[in-house]
Amino acid sequence: xxxxxEYTFDLGNLLFGDFSLLIYxxxxxxxxxxxxxxxxxxxxxxKRAIGSLGSADVLLxxxxxxxxxxxxxxxxIPLAIPLTVITLIAAxxxxxxxxxxxxxxxxxxxxxxxxxxxxxxxxxxxxxxxDEIDENEVYMLLRxxxxxxxxEVEHAYYEQSGVMSVxxxxxxxxxxxxxxxxxxxxxxxx
Length: 190
Prior knowledge:
- With 190 residues, this protein is of the alpha+beta class.
- The protein has two domains: 9-110, no CATH class; 115-185, 2-Layer Sandwich (CRO Repressor).
- It is built from eight helices and four strands, in the order ααααααββαββα.
- The protein has a four-stranded antiparallel β-sheet, covered by helices on one side.
- It is elongated and about 75 Å long.
């Protein structure tokens, strides 16, 4: 940190510092590698880790927050560097979304798919491995959607956002309670 008595205002140094232009090439390489790697890691972690935001949105928030924070707290970092980083992050985000829209095979890698977890009042446990979700988590998501009985559910989908979309029967038979106290009685939950 600079001692207050040694400080002099220099607009050129504030904007560009004393870095060579090669720093910007390095920034481009760094941002590209970090963004790609982070997207893959977020996809690997899964929907629950990111909640209702998409993986690109989470990455955008984290990366921009870091770049903005560095620019505001560290006078040794010229503003052109975080401005370059923020611009590259925004461009990467736009490219990520564009490729996901235009290219089906890229979308399969970058975006999680919708998974059917309940059909006609029956858990589709064979689909649980797709997003590494277990029966208790499915029950929790159903309860959050206001479901008390598994038999109420015609279809339930685990969305890309990590939220469950539930379609109920109009006049269901009320069987197979998913309330915690009933699950304990059925020895489903320990």
